[in-house]
Amino acid sequence: MDRKLLLLIIDGVPHRNWRRLFGNLEGWVQSGDAKLLKMRAVLPSTSASCYASIHTGVTPQEHGCTGNHDVFRLSHDDIFSQVRKAGGVTGAVTHSFWSEFFNRAPFDVVRDVEYDELESTSINHGRFHTMTGYGMINQCTPADVDLFGTLTMLCERKGIDYGILHTCTLDSMGHRFGHDCQEMDHTCFMMDEQMAPFIKRWRDQGYDLIVTADHGQTDRGHHGGHEDLQQDVALYYFGDAEVVDDSDVLCQTQLAPTVLSLLGAPIADTMKGKVFLK
Fold first, then answer.
1. Domain of 202: which CATH number?
2. Which of 15, 154, 165, 251 can bridge 91 by disulfide, Cβ–Cβ 3.0-4.6 Å?
3. Are 22 and 192 in contact (CB under 8 A)?
4. Nearest to residue 230, comparing CAs of 65, 48, 8, 16?
5. Is residue 238 part of a domain?
6. Domain contains 159
7. Within a domain: residue 268?
8. pTM for the complete prediction?
9. Within-domain flag for 102
10. 3-class secondary structure per residue, the chain
11. Shortest CA distance to 94 belongs to which of 157, 163, 43, 155?
């Protein structure tokens, strides 16, 4: 591997809320420690479809996941499989959909909630949660600090070259309260504050870092459709690569080939998006 990299997917945060509520991330942009870009989610801008596109680099119309009730083992090459082809070690601390898409489906809560499979051609070290029973009253989301700590454990104990973290806290809060209210202001602030010490720790360990969202969300708590609030998100990059795409808004399908390019892993033939960091 040319470098190590962590990808953090903070589910369901519109571009507007990134810019006004994540003071630590914005402070690092102002200090020159992070680069800020804007990215647009695929359509439908619903969670599972976006997860699949983030990691395969193709649209839902190609990979076939049309929404959260259409989760299956994808057939396309993805970031995990390409990193493994290059000899890298992979890790995931995510919702169980990621395991189903990129390792095996259906998800078995006993077999798959935690595994270490050194010979796997996709995810070597998996730590997953299901959010079973999720609803407006009970969000069923793990504490974000626990997820950040688990990813850090995989970095320090397992020596992963590429790791992904995914948390649904803000998406769940957005569905419950919308994105223009006191509750969301506070929750975004807490996410930013809790994540900040881990960002420093990951950078000190030699990891490049990308922090972004899978999609946005409206003030009524909706996403899935074609609208700036539903699709547009911020992307923060920590590392020494330079931005080589001057587009005002990047496409989500550019993320997979860019991550692989940074890592020094082969980009799959199906990944047609332009690399934006070199």
1. 3.40.720.10
2. 154
3. yes
4. 16
5. yes
6. yes
7. no
8. 0.98
9. yes
10. CCCEEEEEEECCCCHHHHHHHCHHHHHHHHHCCCEEEEEECCCCCCHHHHHHHHHHCCCHHHHCCCCCCCCCCCCCCCHHHHHHHCCCCEEEEEEHHHHHHHCCCCCCCCCCCEEECCCCCCCCEEEEECCCCCCCCCCCCCCHHHHHHHHHHHHHHHCCCEEEEEECHHHHHHHHHCCCCHHHHHHHHHHHHHHHHHHHHHHHCCEEEEEECCCCCCCCCCCCCCCHHHHEEEEEEECCCCECCCCCCEEHHHHHHHHHHHHCCCCCCCCCCCCCEC
11. 163
Q: Which amino acid is at 268?
A: A
pLDDT in tens, the chain (278 residues): 999 999 999 999 999 999 999 999 999 999 999 999 999 999 999 999 999 999 999 999 999 999 999 999 999 999 999 999 999 999 999 999 999 999 999 999 999 999 999 999 999 999 999 999 998 889 999 999 999 999 999 999 999 999 999 999 999 999 999 999 999 999 999 999 999 999 999 999 999 999 999 999 999 999 999 999 999 999 999 999 999 999 999 999 999 999 999 999 999 999 999 999 99
CA angle 101, 103, 105 (to 5 degrees): 65
Compute the distance between CA of residue 50 and CA of residue 217 in angstroms, rounded to an integer. 13
Domain that holds residue 8: 4-263
Name the phi and psi angles at 266, rounded to 5: -70, 135
Report the amino acid identity of residue 183: E
d(CA 173, CA 203): 29
